Amino acid sequence: MDERFKEKIAAKGFSQLTPIQVAVAKPLQAGQSLDALAPTGTGKTLAFTWPLLPTLTVGDGEQVLILAPSQELAMQTTRVVREWAQLLDLKVLALTGGANVKHQLDRLKKHPEILIGTPGRVAELATKGKLKLNRLRTLILDEADELLKDETAQQVDQIWDTCKDAGIQVALFGATPVDLTVAAGLFDREFERIDARDTQIPVQIKHVFWLTANDQRNKRLRQLASQKNLQAMVFFNTTKQLKITASFLAHEHVAMATLVRGDSSSTRERALRDFRSGKAKFLLTTDVGARGLDIEALPLVINFDLPSHSDTYTHRAGRTGRMAKAGTVMSFGNDHDLRRVRQLVDTQVEVLKGLPRFNKGEHQQVTKAKKKTAPAKPNAKPVNSSQLRVDEDAPEKEQTSRAVTTKKRKQEPEISRHQRLAQVKKAKHKHSKNKGRPLKQRQRS
């Protein structure tokens, strides 16, 4: 590994590399084509970033192309790769749909060494001759199983047709396997499979189920929203249901953001920014948000609608518990849905009996504990009647003080309703009489 990378890794506090990062380093540097599999949240982006970047030549044009299935994942990958590329004076350009094409074409004229994009936009530029890939050395497919499906696979094929060099390295990365016969037929090469999914990595993801009628699921979200330290990604099967729930939460004044296909890139970027910064408590999304998104220390993922396939459940669940942090996946539904969840998940599923409590991070838990044990202010005044009762567990001085206060109040003479009204009327009359008069004259009166 490049020494500059080692220094930055040490400064960031990485104690050790993940199994997938170790396994792919040498084959990637050797120019080998491979199919790399690893669980979600195990650092696959850095697994191909660290070995490849030091092999590139500064100023030699477009040498690496990284494809991602969504704008969000492409932009996230761009941020990660750019952080390390800057150490080597390498330029990175994002080519995603929904962004300004003219701006992208202007930056292409500077011939960045690393391109990261979505298949639709890259295919559009490549087939029109706006993007030249004559110098390409490596093609990375992040979430390859998703990229090699249906229309997206056709776009990848169009991009590959514009690449003239038969020796280009192709690396497939993902958490679920691709059909290697399809990949071999498309790219005309043999792939070495590196499977790190069975490697023992500390995983702290808990799977829970909350029995909920269909018409009560929105109310469950409102209940969860009452917890200060909670943030969650909420997954839906349809945009229609997502919008219904978004309208309900907006009416209940619950801070949330929506991430759906079809929104402009700026709208989707703002939704993610609000969620990452904590302005939004919930991020409502379809499976467009299930792939690769990294939300730091996200405590909870909610399946508002159950997915149809175990792979989809796996990718949704992978948004929490990343890099061995703790996380929870919660699913709503009836008894039939509970049986389906147990089929989708090859682990224990706990059935909740009430509203669970969540804390986002150890720091917040410590802070909360400190607040509970903080000593009471010696001169604190009672703020409501409930504080006037004598508590058997309170300190002796505090009990005495409260008892005396209660006794004084009991000794005050009671007045009738007519007397109180007369006092109020007299005070109002005095106020109107003194209105506009100098202070000294008021005092004399």
Automatic annotation (TrEMBL):
The species this protein was found in: Weissella halotolerans DSM 20190
Family indicated by similarity: Belongs to the DEAD box helicase family.
Protein name as catalogued: ATP-dependent RNA helicase
Alphabetized GO MF terms: ATP binding; hydrolase activity; nucleic acid binding; RNA helicase activity
Classification via InterPro entries: DEAD/DEAH_box_helicase_dom (IPR011545), DEAD/DEAH_RhlB (IPR044742), DEAD_box_RNA_helicase (IPR050079), Helicase_ATP-bd (IPR014001), Helicase_C-like (IPR001650), P-loop_NTPase (IPR027417), RNA-helicase_DEAD-box_CS (IPR000629)
Ranges of compositional bias, category Low complexity: 375-384
PROSITE patterns, A to Z: DEAD_ATP_HELICASE, HELICASE_ATP_BIND_1, HELICASE_CTER
Database matches in Pfam families: DEAD, Helicase_C
Residue span, Helicase C-terminal domain: 216-363
Residue ranges annotated for the Helicase ATP-binding domain, each copy included: 25-195
One cellular component term from this protein's GO annotations in UniProt: cytosol
